[in-house]
Write the structure tokens for this entry.
Amino acid sequence: MSAFDCLLPDSSEKFCGTCKSVKFSEEFHLRSTSKDGRAYTCKDCVKLYNKKRYIDQREHSILYGLCTEFSCDATIYFSSRLCEDHYYKKVSFGRMGSADYWSLLRDKAYEQKMLCAISGDDLIPGENMSLDHIKPESRYPHLRSERSNVQWVTKWVNIAKSNLDMDEFVKRCCNIASRHE
């Protein structure tokens, strides 16, 4: 019997070489190649290592103008801190419920020549570019992922339009304009 066996009286415990503590075996990830079927480093230490690695990668990406998505070395797209693909994937997932529509959104932006569909202002991804649902998703949830129901507009236009459809929005804009003539 070795001195190490004295430290581990039970086979349900294991020593983590990183934090230098004895923990229950369940606190280690499974690893088929190790003798006991568990990893050598506990889950908490692995989590801390991965968190630090992610932060270091993000800081490196920001410093060198690269996409901040993990393991992406593409140059950033305008001021969004993401490459072109990841920018449209993020918008697609957030506004249409799936990242699958990202290439359609990119194509839509190019079809519009990077101009706001309502005001005609230049669109700058990451600064003033916003995806608008022509028929608001709050009132027409079944149209959320319809390509024909989205358009690129500036953020201020999207905020002003809110949950109005185009006819209501234009009518309100005309009412405001007529009051200030």
Notes: The chain has two domains: 3-46, 85-179.
